[in-house]
Amino acid sequence: MARSRRPVITLDGPAGSGKTTTAQAVAKRLGFRHLDSGALYRALTFALLKEGVPEQEWRALEAEQLTALNVEVEAEGDVVNIYHDGVLLTSDLRSPEVTSSVSAVAGLPAVRDWLLDVQRSVGAHGNLVADGRDMGTVVFPDADVKIFLVASLEERARRRLLQDHGREPDVAEIQEEARRIDQRDQADRSRSHSPLRRPEHALEVDTTGLPFDDQVSLILRRVKDLTPL
Ligand code: DC
What we know:
alpha/beta; 3-stranded antiparallel sheet; 9 helices; 17% strand; binds 2'-deoxycytidine-5'-monophosphate
């Protein structure tokens, strides 16, 4: 198959496998746009919580109501910004409230359909590194390079806490976070719409003991092998 000169690279994997930081670094090295698709699910979750839409009503939400939540995605150059009511969303997306409700929101078919167009328009011109759960399977099935990142549950929990608190967590904290991540993994893998799975032909990279720079280099090598870059 002829490969695109403006490639799309997908990174999928379970929570805390390092997708977003890795995708960011790969995009930066290539001068590509980075799409953190998890942030889009988090933005809709943030808006639903902020607008006080009761959880028991989420299942019945339709596209029109999702549009009315006023979540906007603006992509310019290599930057993708997400707004709610015109306000740029940053750390709010990672609050514990958003994190504990986002799997329920990501399991809603109406939400996934609504976000499909958004994600594809961000990637319409290629030169994109997209990370998430269904990037290589559903959103960009023709992507030029597909990566599936995995890591042990404890390591993923440790990284999540380090990222969120900026310090090395203790054993009890890691166990507690591992339990939460495991629950989210189960929800992501078992939902009927776009469950998390390894895309066909994806390169699986286990990052448990792999230094970050090696991980990035390995992916860049794969990009070099599979694209005309
Ligand atoms: O990667 P993350 O923790 O920011 O993802 C937040 C949630 O969104 C998580 O429950 C999985 C879900 N998600 C998804 O279902 N599909 C994606 N492409 C990205 C994230």
